[in-house]
Amino acid sequence: AKSVRHVKRDDAFHFDNAFSSSIDTSEIYDTVAKRIVASTMEGYNGTIFMYGQTGSGKTFTMKGDERKGHPGILPLSIYDIFHSISQTPDREYLLRVSYIEIYNEVVKDLLVPNSTNLKVHEKIDGTIYVGNLKE
Description:
By secondary structure, the protein is of the alpha+beta class. The protein has helices at residues 25-40, 58-63, 73-87; strands at 2-5, 12-15, 64-65, 70-71, 100-103, 106-109, 120-122, 128-130. The strands form four sheets. Strands 1-2 form a two-stranded antiparallel sheet. Strands 3-4 form a two-stranded antiparallel sheet. It has a two-stranded antiparallel ribbon with strand order 5-6. The longest helix is centred in the N-terminal third of the chain and has 16 residues, at 25-40. The protein is globular, with a radius of gyration of 17 Å. The two termini are 32 Å apart.
């Protein structure tokens, strides 16, 4: 991990990667998401989380623009998942995917366009989940 120090305070902000606006989405996928996708194919849960201010390119990075030859993290993930499945025909898979957006503290299920303001809950064992989320 890398860190940046605030010049007037002793705070440090830690991060794994920072990318310029000219970087291709496939390089971001290879750096950040590919290992997460690979681990899900081994049975682990995986989360790809985008964070940033409005207009910083989160949606483009996730969805991309395949018509212009710039697939995003989602299509690249889907390709790798189904490629992995095709390479192991003797194995059975159960895929579960959810796709949410949190904007101005409102949780929206992007697989169900009319769902808005979903609630985040915590189970007694500390597990966090979003209620009424489509898989």
